[in-house]
Amino acid sequence: MMKRVIWLLSGLNRRMMKLLFALALIAYIACKSIQEHAEMNIEQRIDEMFITKEICLLSPSFSQKYPPVKFLSEKDRKRILITGGAGFVGSHLTDKLMMDGHEVTVVDNFFTGRKRNVEHWIGHENFELINHDVVEPLYIEVDQIYHLASPASPPNYMYNPIKTLKTNTIGTLNMLGLAKRVGARLLLASTSEVYGDPEVHPQNEEYWGHVNPIGPRACYDEGKRVAETMCYAYMKQEGVEVRVARIFNTFGSRMHMNDGRVVSNFILQALQGEPLTVYGTGSQTRAFQYVSDLVNGLVLLMNSNISSPVNLGNPEEHTILEFARLIKSLVVSRSQIQFLPEAQDDPQRRRPDIRKAKMMLGWEPVVPLEEGLNKTIQYFSRELEHQANNQYIPKPKAARMKKGRPRHN
Ligand SMILES: NC(=O)c1ccc[n+]([C@@H]2O[C@H](COP(=O)([O-])OP(=O)(O)OC[C@H]3O[C@@H](n4cnc5c(N)ncnc54)[C@H](O)[C@@H]3O)[C@@H](O)[C@H]2O)c1
């Protein structure tokens, strides 16, 4: 009897045990699935947080305000390369072509250019910035090339004359090679310096110039002269479409603080109460155009059918001394005017004959000198505010040439 009871109990226990085991198993599975579900929820929430965070991080670029850009149909929209596009003139040209609705690629090695000059376009679907030296070949697909890459102010191009020569010769060959490969039109930013210290006044495009081929400025002057020669060799031999702009002195915002040319020197000196340095008697003449006028001229020339060189400059001629006095009065500065010995190879007179541009492009400068100067003074005073101690004095990088002083450009 006792045995039967024990057997019954143990059977019951076994069943109970099985039942309990089954219940425990069910509870375990249920717990596990709840836990997994909870874990999944947490993962989902983390994912969601990351996505939200990423969107937050990205949102400034999503919401970034670009300057207004026109819509151009596929047919009218061009792929445009600007070499030296992060420099003074190049960045203003970038602005115009972007706002006109084109796709712009800026190529620059940042020797004198700055990312800051084009940063307002970074991230825009029509804009690309490439850090590249034009002395190396470049392979991209483009319809037009504005070839501006070259140091432009004497302290900058005399800093490394061999590099200046390479940029203007090998760099130009590379860009002409690219133009030939992809069938693009190339505009060369040449210079009034191809006229040297001119014996003809004002200088028209027929004048062949008066250049010292071994002087301190030859790396630039002769570099640009041979760059023009290369353009016409590619045009005649390879059928490349070329445009050549002979640019005269230009000024405006985004000029480099170390530019070292007369407008920026005088403005910076006047703003800081330093003497305005005039080399020689100050009777040398110069004519200055505002940068927006130049940019309009470059675009008109590129899209014209004129393949011969065209002067782009302001024919309004002033003596250096007049400039010094005008800038002093616009800045309302107490600076003195200081006369220093005349500089080597300093052209006595420089004034463009722009009849060709007027007649064939319908172009002439429209920004009055004082208006342009006031804008440039505002720009330089803002730049000075950025300087830590507000005591910046323009000190162009020393030229490696032993001879030659700064001159009025
Ligand atoms: N500003 C003027 O008064 C003036 C007058 C005559 C001609 N130009 C010509 O116009 C062009 C632009 O002049 P700017 O005043 O804007 O000068 P800039 O120095 O401000 O611009 C030149 C740009 O070219 C870039 N660059 C130089 N060497 C390069 C290289 N090897 N590879 C790639 N990029 C390079 C520089 O970093 C800079 O961004 C130059 O070709 C200059 O000769 C200017």
Automatic annotation (TrEMBL):
Pfam families in the record: GDP_Man_Dehyd (PF16363), UXS1_N (PF11803)
Cross-referenced Gene3D superfamilies: NAD(P)-binding Rossmann-like Domain
Subcellular locations according to the entry: Golgi apparatus, Golgi stack membrane
Residue ranges of domain UDP-glucuronate decarboxylase N-terminal in the record: 3-67
Keyword match Transmembrane helix: yes
NAD(P)-binding domain segment(s): 81-376
Organism: Lates calcarifer (Barramundi)
Pathway: Nucleotide-sugar biosynthesis; UDP-alpha-D-xylose biosynthesis; UDP-alpha-D-xylose from UDP-alpha-D-glucuronate: step 1/1
Region (Disordered): 390-409
Entry keywords, A to Z: Decarboxylase, Glycoprotein, Golgi apparatus, Lyase, Membrane, NAD, Signal, Signal-anchor, Transmembrane, Transmembrane helix
UniProt KW tRNA-binding keyword: no
An example molecular function term from Gene Ontology annotations: NAD+ binding
Catalytic activity entry: UDP-alpha-D-glucuronate + H(+) = UDP-alpha-D-xylose + CO2
Top EC category: lyase
UniProt protein name: UDP-glucuronic acid decarboxylase 1
Signal peptide limits: 1-31
Gene responsible for this protein: UXS1
Enzyme Commission code(s) on record: 4.1.1.35
Annotated Basic residues bias: 397-409
GO cellular component, one term: Golgi cisterna membrane
